TrEMBL record:
<keyword id="KW-0472">Membrane</keyword>
<feature type="transmembrane region" description="Helical">
    <location>
        <begin position="122"/>
        <end position="139"/>
    </location>
</feature>
<dbReference type="GO" id="GO:0004175">
    <property type="term" value="F:endopeptidase activity"/>
</dbReference>
<keyword id="KW-0812">Transmembrane</keyword>
<feature type="domain" description="CAAX prenyl protease 2/Lysostaphin resistance protein A-like">
    <location>
        <begin position="83"/>
        <end position="193"/>
    </location>
</feature>
<dbReference type="GO" id="GO:0080120">
    <property type="term" value="P:CAAX-box protein maturation"/>
</dbReference>
<feature type="transmembrane region" description="Helical">
    <location>
        <begin position="84"/>
        <end position="110"/>
    </location>
</feature>
<dbReference type="InterPro" id="IPR003675">
    <property type="entry name" value="Rce1/LyrA-like_dom"/>
</dbReference>
<dbReference type="Pfam" id="PF02517">
    <property type="entry name" value="Rce1-like"/>
</dbReference>
<feature type="transmembrane region" description="Helical">
    <location>
        <begin position="151"/>
        <end position="170"/>
    </location>
</feature>
<feature type="transmembrane region" description="Helical">
    <location>
        <begin position="182"/>
        <end position="201"/>
    </location>
</feature>
<protein>
    <recommendedName>
        <fullName>CAAX prenyl protease 2/Lysostaphin resistance protein A-like domain-containing protein</fullName>
    </recommendedName>
</protein>
<keyword id="KW-1133">Transmembrane helix</keyword>
Amino acid sequence: MTTGFSATVRRATQILTAPKSDRPLFGQTSTLAHRQPNARIGYSLAIRMALIDFVLSSLCYVLSGQPVTDPHPNRQIDLTELLIVLFVDVLFVAPLLETSIFHFLYKLIFPQLGKLTNRTRLIFYIILSDLIFFVLHLPKRSHGIFIYHSFYQALVIGLVSGSIFSLTYYRSVNEYHFRPYLTTALCHALVNGLLVIGLTLV
């Protein structure tokens, strides 16, 4: 499970520590000319990265001692509302919408960074993803049907999940030539599903 992730971390470390490194982080940089016209979704990549995300996030919650359950335990939730929460906020709409924000900001910002070194691009890339996912999961006054997040949970989602999702997207583009948007959204949905199952069993 961790072989591909370990290789990615080693390449990232080399790029961030080696002076003036312009080595591609994920193998040869892909261009539209080299991309397969009917690239498929990276199911195996999405599953591997989702498992890594789930393990790291769970460790953060366990080691911190922070509660990860809904802070409103007495609130009555009927079956219909529960299904809406699972469908809208966890498994489908939220992963697609949140990945869309990252996807289109990436398309908007990164063409302007073509002259930067790979190390600098990597730093901008991860910071962008971490910031997006942190802001999107900050505590809200009224969560309605959406799952409530504490500030600590938003921090974990931003730093851990944001980094994992950005690596999933980047590897989809430059290493495996998968469809980056759908592969990352699938990874996101799997992580959400695993966390919900984990919270249910706790």
